[in-house]
Amino acid sequence: MTSLFQILMMIIDIVWFIMIAHIIMSWLINFQVLNLRQPIVAQIWYGLNRLLEPVYGRIRQFLPDMGGLDLAPLVALLALYAIRIVLINNAMSFL
User: Fold this and answer.
1) Between these two residues, 1 and 76, which has the higher pLDDT value?
2) CA nearest 18: which of 66, 53, 57, 42?
3) Which helix (H) or strand (E) holds 19?
4) Cα 78–chain centre separation
5) Whole-angstrom Cα distance, residue 82 to residue 95?
6) Which of 30, 31, 17, 19 lies closest to 73 in space, CA to CA?
C-alpha cells in the first residue's frame, strides 16, 4: 500500500508542475515575452489548455465574476495542496 501512496503523491506532483507551467506561460504570453504565432509555443499552450480547462471550467462555475481576474488556477492549486496535506496526514492508513 505504500506504493499506492507514492503513486498518488507522484500524480499530485505532476499535476502541480503542469498547473505552475500553465500559470507561468500565461503570464509570459500576456506580457508578450512569448508569442503564440510560434508553432512550439502554440502547441504547448493549447495542450496545457486542453488538459486544464475542464478543471478550471468547473471551478469557474462556483466562483463569482471577477472581471478580468481569473482565480480558478489559484483555487485549483489550493485544492491540490489540500489533497496533498490530507494524503500525508493519512499516510499511516496506506501501510
Assistant:
1) 76
2) 53
3) helix 2-30
4) 10
5) 21
6) 19
**pLDDT of 1 higher than 80:** no
CA distances from 11 to 6, 16, 20, 38, 60 (A): 9, 8, 14, 30, 23
Tens-digit pLDDT profile for residues 38-93: 999 999 999 999 999 999 999 999 999 888 899 999 999 999 999 999 999 998 88
Amino acid at 20: I
Cα 55 to the center of its chain, rounded Å = 8
In angstroms, how far is CA 8 from the centroid of its own chain? 15
Amino acid sitting at position 7: I
- The pLDDT assigned to 23 comes to 96
Residue carrying C-alpha cell 466562483:
63
Res 95: pLDDT: 72
Q: How far apart are the C-alpha atoms of 69 and 81, rounded to whole Å?
A: 21
